[in-house]
Write a structure and sequence with these properties.
Largest sheet of chain A: none
Number of strands of chain B: 0
Strand content of chain A: under 5%
Structural class of chain A: mainly alpha
Order of helices and strands of chain A: HHHH
Number of domains of chain B: 1
Shape of chain B: elongated
Distance between the termini of chain A: 25 Å
Number of helices of chain B: 4
Number of strands of chain A: 0
Strand content of chain B: under 5%
Oligomer: heterodimer
Number of helices of chain A: 4
Distance between the termini of chain B: 42 Å
């Protein structure tokens, strides 16, 4: 299992635990400064983007057909690295800014929320850029 | 990767790119409501494309590819039901999206029905393939080291 795939899968597991913890706290309505109702979309996105999508990305990077031989057999890794950083930066920003904006709307949480949204979007594009040529039949030496 | 899986996965990735674009716009709207309330009308599309178009379709595409082949180890079984499932699933997603805009009156139920039929059609191929892997050629015992 390549290093990048391990990174994706391990990060995905962390988000699974985080998502379930957020939902558990929201269901218990633990008294405190957090607006629990505003955390519902945060929970869903920690689960679906942090856990499910990140797990799909990690497995796809690892298992989808290769496009060559040797160290670069999976193609250019840079968009996959970029997608990991962008996805996680965006998701963390969203997780912080969404409840913040719900509780005390202002330019800071609004700016962070928008940044988080479009960082995640860029992550999706970067990973798609990498994986699209790998959705193909098996590579055979001598064939394009 | 078989051709039908390539169709599932490429379509799933298109759903993902569209759904994440609508998601980013909706989140931007939460920060800047001046963007226009029209953005919130994308919510139905965002949810359906993410959950069914992206996640479910990716799983189905990979399942067809990775599940054990039928006894004999050559065939993945008839692809007719898998192609049918592909059509039903994406038509279902489209109907649910149109229903979320009020374009199709009873589209939500009809769309869900198509998605259920897609699951059943896919299962026709997948169910017999959910079985232990059997090696095509049993390993010879002659070459094993003697104890």
């Amino acid at each position: 299992m390549p290093r990048l795939a391990r990174l994706y899968v391990k990060t995905a597991f962390i988000y699974l635990l985080l998502a379930l913890a957020v939902d558990a706290l929201a269901l218990m309505r633990v008294p405190g400064p957090l607006p629990w109702a505003a955390l519902r979309p945060t929970y869903w996105h920690l689960f679906l983007v942090g856990w499910v999508t990140q797990m799909i990305f990690g497995a796809a990077y690892w298992m989808f057909p290769i496009v060559g031989y040797g160290p670069t057999k999976r193609g250019d890794e840079r968009p996959v690295w970029a997608a990991w950083f962008l996805l996680n930066a965006g998701l963390v920003l969203r997780t912080v800014a969404e409840p913040w904006q719900a509780r005390a709307a202002g330019p800071w949480p609004a700016g962070l929320l928008v940044a988080g949204a479009w960082l995640q979007w860029l992550a999706g594009l970067a990973f798609t850029w990498h994986i699209w040529p790998r959705i193909r039949g098996w590579y055979r030496r001598g064939r394009a | 990767m078989p051709r039908v899986s390539r169709w599932y996965l490429r379509t799933a990735w298109l759903h993902f790119v569209l759904a994440s674009t609508w998601g980013a716009l909706m989140l931007t709207y939460k920060a800047w409501p001046g963007l226009g309330a029209w953005v919130w009308r994308l919510r139905g599309w965002h949810l359906e494309a993410m959950l069914v178009g992206w996640v479910a379709q990716t799983i189905l595409g990979v399942l067809f590819w990775w599940l054990p082949k039928l006894p004999g180890g050559v065939s993945r079984g008839p692809t007719g039901p898998v192609w049918l499932a592909y059509g039903l699933l994406n038509a279902g997603v489209a109907l649910v999206v149109l229903a979320s805009w009020g374009v199709v009156g009873d589209g939500l139920r009809a769309g869900r029905a198509l998605e259920i039929l897609a699951g059943l059609a896919f299962a026709l191929n997948a169910w017999p393939r959910i079985r232990p892997l059997v090696r095509a050629r049993p390993r010879s015992t002659a070459s094993e080291p003697s104890s």
